[in-house]
Amino acid sequence: MNNFINRPTSAFIAASWVALLAGAVGFIIGLWNANMPLHEKGYYFVILLYGLFSAASLQKAVRDQLEEIPVTQIYYGLCWASMAVCIVLLLISLWNADLAMSEKGFYIMSFLLSLFGVVATQKNIRDLNYLRLQTELNPRQIRLDESTSKQDDAE
Questions:
Q1: 3-state secondary structure of 72
Q2: What pLDDT score was predicted for residue 105?
Q3: At what angle do helices 38-66 and 73-96 cross, to 10 degrees?
Q4: pLDDT at res. 155
Q5: Domain ranges of the chain
Q6: Record keywords: Transmembrane included (predicted)?
Q7: CB 3.0-4.6 Å disulfide test: which of 71, 76, 79, 155 passes with 58?
């Protein structure tokens, strides 16, 4: 794994959580206020949950491969297929839905925002955990590296 993982800034961590919550909560509020049967609302809610899980799982599989953690090709392929399936299911159902174009656009944008938010949040959690483990395993080396980089910057 790359030893140059920087700690995510507080602003990026906050923006990731805001994107996730704004997308997911916006999607759910849209469903709550929608004039559609309950089973249709349930279908869209399940698509949201499926998409969030697929995106987090795909991000984990990609990151595992980058860190040279073994990931089977079938799991990696299923993650991509699952991500594609949930997006296609949403698009097909919205195409056939009896909704205004603005409502369809709202659902698509809030869905994509929540997918981005879950990927960014998962990345932040993974980066922070990696840095925490590195600090616990070798705190002296990290302090030495920081002091060396500060000296290099001063010169």
A1: coil
A2: 94
A3: 150
A4: 58
A5: 10-149
A6: yes
A7: 79
- State which residues of the chain have pLDDT below 50: none
The per-residue pLDDT for 96 is 93
Q: In the prediction, which pLDDT does 130 show? A: 84
Question: How open is the CA angle 90-95-100, to the nearest 5 degrees?
Answer: 105
Residue 118: both structure tokens together:
């879950």
Q: Residue 133: its pLDDT value, please? A: 84
- The closest alpha carbon to 56, from 26, 35, 32, 86, belongs to 86
d(CA 119, CA 140): 32
> Which tokens belong to 114?
């929540």
Gap between the Cα atoms of 14 and 74, Å rounded? 34
Which residues have CB under 8 Å from 96's CB, separation 6+? none
The one-letter code for the residue type at 66 is L
Q: Please tell me the total number of residues recorded for the chain in this structure.
A: 155
Q: What is the pTM of this model?
A: 0.81
The answer to whether 17 and 121 are in contact (CB under 8 A) is yes
